[in-house]
Amino acid sequence: MKIKALLTAVWLCVAALPAMSAQRYVGGDISLLPEYEKAGAQYKAPSGEPIADLIPWLHRQGMNAMRVRLFVNPAKYKELHQNDANADTRYDPNACQDLEYIKPLCKRIVDSGMDLMLDFHYSDTWADPAKQWTPIDWEGLTDEQLYQKIYDYTRDVLTQLKDYGVVPAFIQPGNEISYGMLWGSAGTSSPKKALMGSDANWERFGKLLRQAVKACQEVCPDAKIILHTERVAQVDVLKNFYDKMKELDVPYDIIGLSYYPYFHGGLNVLDKALQSMQNNFLSKNVMIVETGYSYKWELPGTNHDNTQTWPYSEAGQAKFVTDLVTDLEKYDQVDGLFWWWLEYNAYGTSLSGWYNAPLFDSTTGRATAALSALCSYATSGIVTLHPDDLDPSGLSDSDSWYTIAGRCLSAAPTTPGLYIRNHRKVMVQ
């Protein structure tokens, strides 16, 4: 009976401790960096000191992972669509990253000591909830042929990267895929969308994803698979998507979310989405794989005014990041935060300075205050204490200490290491 009671007590201690990642990932999408470097962009530290090589500098600031997007054949898309009148199909020069483009960029990232997140768009141009156009060279394929094609393409890309000395730590098979992918040719009037409330195209979508994931697991078995969606303001749609992934037996590790306050709303909106994920998909970690906020003026397409909380200023941008980091502290599942297009910087170039949500000021080249605030996310949940500051006496259940493995301690720890107390990580020195 004593043994049984002891085992029960240990189980209760472990059960009381939520799942918590041993590491947090912080960084951003820097897919256009080679183009800015080619144009002569000047990156500077907040002090004004020039940055010789941005990637290792970002690593020294505390970032530990970077995201890179990949398109199938953007050159062919440019040839056919650069003069389109329709903005949804017209070629965008920022969507230029083919495999040969990303190889050296990805190599620089992993050689710097950071992890790589590879973002497959499975398109020749931007793939997002409004458009998921099939690559031009794949347009004539049947669904059965597409299942094989996405497998072959994914496997070939990852094999070539591996041969180049690059192994992604995280892989996104698809970008913002709430409504499926590979809908058909650009501008298709009746695309093969997967929609909540309709069974049409979900099975097709599931087969495409399973084939893509199969290739990822074969070539990069240690990589974590991220399924990336963006419906944080529509929690029912968001939950339905990941319910469908379970129903369709799509294997994955991480729920990846886009969150932009100017598109989605304030942190209360994000909270509802994260709470739903934590309530319904507790076994999955969550990453904010895209976020951003302006530091000067309103961005085109803005439909939520958050300036009472976060003014359009460098201080306002930094406050957004600080508030976001604080908010994410509440969710043990969340272990990643990535800024989109952080490398945007027209300073010293003839490029346009229209975009106002990077982490560098295009008029000075200096890193904004938000960059250091973002980097704080990697360690913000860790409190450092010395054993002399701790009461070694017995503790109440509400003030218990746990090892990272989930073992409940009977007193405050005296051995240096990482522990859990009140749902927070504490480093005892």
Q: How are the elements arranged and paired?
A:
Blueprint: H1 2-15, E1 25-29, H2 33-38, H3 54-61, E2 65-70, H4 74-81, H5 99-111, E3 115-120, H6 143-163, E4 170-173, H7 202-219, E5 224-229, H8 235-247, E6 254-259, H9 261-264, H10 267-280, E7 285-291, H11 314-328, E8 334-339, H12 369-375, E9 382-385, E10 401-403, E11 417-421, E12 424-428
Parallel strand pairs: 1-2, 1-8, 2-3, 3-4, 4-5, 5-6, 6-7, 7-8, 9-12
Antiparallel strand pairs: 10-11, 11-12
Overview of this structure, please?
This protein has 12 helices and 12 strands. The protein has 2 domains: about 20-380, TIM Barrel (Alpha-Beta Barrel), CATH 3.20.20; about 380-429, no CATH class. The longest helix is centred in the middle third of the chain and has 21 residues, at about 145-165. It has about 425 residues and is α/β, with parallel strands linked by helices. The chain has helices at about 1-15, 35-40, 55-60, 75-80, 100-110, 145-165, 200-220, 235-245, 260-265, 265-280, 315-330, 370-375; strands at about 25-30, 65-70, 115-120, 170-175, 225-230, 255-260, 285-290, 335-340, 380-385, 400-405, 415-420, 425-429. The protein is globular. The strands form 2 sheets. An 8-stranded parallel beta barrel has the order 1-2-3-4-5-6-7-8, surrounded by 4 helices. Strand 3, helix 6 and strand 4 (about 170-175) form a beta-alpha-beta unit.
